[in-house]
């Protein structure tokens, strides 16, 4: 991890992070929706090489390994890499790199994924440029990030008016709370300046986090997932997904 960039490192709380994300309906739903969107827009069995940048505990890496790809998983946390190695069963098709994204060697891949990472980085747009450059021409880059507009909407619905008025800045950050959420329009405007074509855009968890009765997140999970799939890539719902997902193809 670069001391100058101050990107978030989950060493010492990797197990807690794993449980808080994938041990809940929000983590399960996010993962399943992302997998669905990838399979819907990319011929995954034809993908031979994958970079899972900031891939953490390897949840998506395992899916892509099962599809037959050779996967390189990078992360700045040794603890999350250890969890990923165990989860993926010491697969010979998995390579682990202890590195931040900007320090990765300039290898190109058929598919690059960077899911729920940008919001933990001090310089997200430099990381986007780096990852586009690591995508083969004609290959795909899947990008998911925490949606600042949805974060604001959620806080307004909870009545946290002073917090929103103060720009949603707090003196003492919670380690599992993303510290640099992004607005989808800003990311899309940036991507229009790059040599990519956006092939898919969708909100992730457009409904789940706004349910009036949170117990329905579990009791009505399959109906909730069906609704997320039905409306997540449609206006206006997509813009209020807690995460925003973009799949793009590198043109040159």
UniProtKB/TrEMBL annotation:
S-adenosyl-L-methionine binds at residues 30, 54-55, 75, 115. The gene is smtA. Pfam families: Methyltransf_11 (PF08241). Belongs to the class I-like SAM-binding methyltransferase superfamily. CmoM family. Keywords: Methyltransferase, S-adenosyl-L-methionine, Transferase, tRNA processing. One of its GO terms (molecular function) is methyltransferase activity. Catalyzes the methylation of 5-carboxymethoxyuridine (cmo5U) to form 5-methoxycarbonylmethoxyuridine (mcmo5U) at position 34 in tRNAs. This is tRNA 5-carboxymethoxyuridine methyltransferase. It comes from the Bacteria. It catalyses: 5-carboxymethoxyuridine(34) in tRNA + S-adenosyl-L-methionine = 5-methoxycarbonylmethoxyuridine(34) in tRNA + S-adenosyl-L-homocysteine. InterPro entries: Cmo5U_methylTrfase, Methyltransf_11, SAM-dependent_MTases_sf. Residues 51-142 form the Methyltransferase type domain. GO terms for biological process: methylation. Its EC number is 2.1.1.-. Coiled coil: none annotated.
